[in-house]
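Dear colleague,

As promised, here are the two records you asked about, laid out in our usual form so they can be pasted straight into your sheet.

NAME FIELD: protein one
SEQUENCE, THEN STRUCTURE:
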Amino acid sequence: MNEHPNDSFDELMRRSLHEEADRVEPTDSLPEIQARARVQRRTTSRRPWVLTAGAALVGTAAVIGAFTVLDNNTNTAGDSGVAAGPSTSTSASALPSSTTPEPSTSPSQAPTEPPTAQATSVPKDRRGTPEPMVKGTLVPVYWLGDKTAITPTPGATTKATPKVRLYRTWAKVSGRPAVEAVRIMTSKQSGDPDYYSLWRGAEINTVTRSDGTVTVDFKRLPTTKLDPETADVAAQQLIYTVQGALDDSSQQVQITQDGQVGARLFGQVDTSTPLSRAQAANVQALVWITSPAQGQLTKSMVTVEGTAAAYEATVNYEATNLKTREVRKGYTSTKEGQKFTPFAFNLKLAPGPWQIEAFLISPADGSTTDVDSKTIEVR
């Protein structure tokens, strides 16, 4: 348990470590790992296959703490209201051709017509250990935001298709941090109406750890059927949230329902084996505004901060007064191009409601892509 739950320095370090971890782009070592695993299986043929399903679960969460969703990287509960109700609106943005990631190596790789998986109970002797209790600790919670591919030029045969990306907010929780983070993700709403979750209706049971695997057991999994690409990113929403709450992005995540593996998540993702974290460039939004928060009351001089993986390290912005329609435009730079690094810019705004947008410009056709926005009130 954290002996100093209100230590602002500890919370600042925690957020900084999360931000640094989200910028890491691990190399794809999966083929090498699989090769070693196959050799090991041949030399230990008597080992039951079901042991690869991960750890089993013990008990249920002992304490359900109060939680508040925060829309930026501050530790002030007043920056956003208490999370409540389903999300009903989303944002549209697009992917610049120059920064299009390689095809996702996310875990499902589901076939067009997935076979029906057989539910298998996790052995009792593989049950893991519940996470320790905390009080008033900030944890990251990930949400989905819609994005739209670059609109084709006239005469093009390719049709623009909607995509989803991950956006992070912060929540202060008491109880078991990963359990509470998943509870927010599955039953609450971000303070930003552009962010939403496809895990609505799911009900978390426990989060346990054993032998390098985190097992997330649900009383009920979501029943929504999704296309393969969206299903993979939605699965990563859970993986990023659980690993973030545990401060460990290395451990795989085994999804179970009432202690059984094998359910096909969202009708696509095979959960018979543990799932790995996808590279950030494949699933995270390429531009996010981290400050100010959605709905925040600010002074006339506003500092806007965020993170972006921007072509030529350039992030564009536009601020619009929602009453007078006054518009301010400009651009700023990230610390490094085409990698997730911070950006910031200052605006001096007249009193009133403003919408601030940060976005990329496609080098291919000059279109606006990858938009994130916040609405604030300047006093």
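NAME FIELD: protein two
SEQUENCE, THEN STRUCTURE:
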Amino acid sequence: MEVNNIDSKPFFSVLVPVYNQEKYLPECIESVLNQTFKDFELILVDDGSTDSSGMLCDQYAQEHPRIITVIHQKNQGLLFARRTGIENANGEFYLFLDADDYFCGNALKTIYSQIEKKSVHMVIFNASLQADFKSKLNNYPYEDGTVLEGKQKNVFLMAFCGTHMFNNMCFKCIHSSLIDLHDYIDGVGVGYGEDLFQSIPLVDRAESFCILQAPLYFYRQHAESMTHYYNPAQFESLKNVCGRLMAYSQKWQGEYKIPLIDKAYEYAGNECYRTAKNVLKSNDEFGVKRNYLAELKKDAFYKKYVENKRMCSHLRMYEKFILFAVKSNSYMMQRIVSEIFSCASRLKRN
């Protein structure tokens, strides 16, 4: 492992896992270097890239040796690339930035001002799918600048366990005291749901949260990221992540006397439904899809949570039809749903 070290102790550590992102990496790095707030370090973890990403990291580090630290390692995946960044971070607060995304110019200044005014452990901000930051990715159920602390944490926990909008690590700024590297021991094999897996213990330890409506982060959507497919390893990862959510939900329910386990069950049910739907949306031959569904329906985790009544009640009519087709094991119904997805995919490509 090769590391370029810096000596100063900055306010922010911006941690960027890098894997084969030569096309977008310069824009990402420059969005940090061009911040109006300058008290930060930038840690680039080259996670075994096979393109020119690692070389680009080194070039930027040579130009900015007091700001940028580069770490080259064998490919370990997103979760452990972030852990490597944390192990080498010196800042008081940590931010996570994906190598194909970028910050708006005043992101760090905006976050810093909230930390200084409100002395919180975690700032959660918004993102945009537009490069000009004119749209918001999430509709947070709080007024801009809301601080939740003390007994109010139960309000945040209800939203955290009941929705996906607070999962993403890249939309959080966290105090370094919230980090415990032991959180990653159970993360071996987690290649899906990494953000929620990483967020759960941090949310557990945080005593105060500030919610910002402002989109400070550009979240890039790629065609491949919107492609749905079934991967058995991904489903195993999902079960690991849901296991952590179940355990902490039970802990929080005991502490705050709020019905969080039901919400965790609902989350698991949604993910099981999404997994089955992705089988039918995949590009595999229909016979392969049928085999995947048959194996999926034998899985104890899937059987337990796909029947969640709260989850089913929230599904829209066409989603209920998809779920019914999956559960019925009807060749004809599953074939119809599969063909509908195939036609929709072709229309999008054209």
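A couple of things worth noting about protein two: Confidence is low (pLDDT under 50) at residues 1-6. Residues 148 and 209 are 5 Å apart (CA to CA).

Best,
R.
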